[in-house]
Amino acid sequence: MTHQEIIQRFENDVIAEDSFHHVDHVRLGFAYLCEYPPLPALERFVTALKRFAAARGKAHLYHETITHAYFFLIRERMAGSQGADWDEFARQNPDLLVWKDGILNRYYQETTLKSELARTVFAAKVAVRIARYVGSKSRQLLCGDGNLKGARFGIGTSRRRRTHAKCGRNLSLTGFGRASG
């Protein structure tokens, strides 16, 4: 099945509730990122997930922080495995496919993830931990490309803007990917 077919099946609500598990969420995020630039992909992904949950009377299960964190981890890993299809990506990143005691335990305390605030708003403080953990890959995550020549980057060390030389995006975490200008 193509990425577009996976997305269409999900957006058209053709997938049964009991057949959509964590691995399927990751697969869907991967498909959106293969078809769209990161921020439009995230917007479509979130909208579709919320619609899916609401249609089943489970809107309360949508979790903003978990959704965003996994989404950007998928994006970062995709940058490191350029051109990999889903099967290869899944083989290279088994830690993304584990739900219980999964990768988010590296970044979040259990109490944070259980909080109402983290459920409804992306816990952005943790983006600093993620950026530090992924190192240079975070620059690709924010810019959407691998051409970092001339990029200046810092993590909360200064209020000065750091911009990518090619795309002009603001690389400071306070501006998290907004165009500078």
Description:
The protein has 181 residues and is mostly helical. The protein folds into two domains: 3-134, no CATH class; 145-181, no CATH class. It contains nine helices and no strands. It has helices spanning 3-11, 22-35, 38-55, 64-80, 86-92, 110-113, 116-120, 125-134, 137-143. The radius of gyration is 17 Å and the shape is globular. The relative contact order is 0.10. Residues 145-181 have low confidence and may be disordered.
Q: Pick out the low-confidence regions.
A: 145-181
Radius of gyration over all CA atoms, rounded: 17 Å
Query: What is the global morphology?
Result: globular
Give the proportion of residues in helices: 40-55%
- Distance from first to last alpha carbon: 41 Å
Integer average pLDDT: 78
Give a quick precis of the structure.
This protein is mainly α and 181 residues long. The chain is built from nine helices and no strands.
Annotate the secondary structure layout.
Layout (H helix, E strand, L loop, with lengths): L2 H9 L10 H14 L2 H18 L8 H17 L5 H7 L17 H4 L2 H5 L4 H10 L2 H7 L38
Helix pairs in contact: 1-2, 2-3, 2-4, 4-9
Which key phrases capture this entry?
181 residues; mainly alpha; 2 domains; 9 helices; globular; disordered C terminus
